Amino acid sequence: MSRQTIWSKRKNQSPEVDLLHFLQSLVRSSLDGLSRNKLAATLSLIALVLTTALALTSDYDERPRYRKLILPEIHKAEQQFFTIMQAAEDEQNELWRLHYFLEGHRRAKAALRVVRAEHPMTPAGRKAQRELARYYELVDEQLAIIRTEMSFYETFDYVGEWKRRNAELMPIREQWLQWVQPSP
Predict the structure, then answer these.
(1) Does 51 share its domain with 67?
(2) Where in the sequence is the domain holding 14, given as residue range(s)?
(3) pLDDT category of residue 16 using cuts at 50, 70 and 90
């Protein structure tokens, strides 16, 4: 057959047929390679199964890595938030107190962004991180509610209300702290 005849036959075939022939050829080649290298294929399969089993059942403690790499960023964001909220509580001037409170809300959102940006690897780490994110989501929500109430009531004790609501939310954050703390 001439090249032109072969080319015209290929042009009339659909791309699925060529893909089908390619896949069949690939499977045949793989099976042929496995039958020639039975020992190597068997050992590779055993190694794959054992490695997978060990990886899925091991009790890896990522807390040292978490404390070294992730915790400093979270700690910095948390310190900024708690410091500004403490400054709002301690401030005597109402205008500055309001400024600190609003800045605290902004910093709570920043802390939430930092917490969401970090991704622990183990299920226990992910669960603890979700609890911390949940705490800051609820803090953001509660601060938004307090700010709304402030707009309705001029004499609203927003700092006292914040302290009360934060006391209700702290057990959520404590769950994260329990995971982060070094085990005895």
Answers:
(1) no
(2) 3-57
(3) low
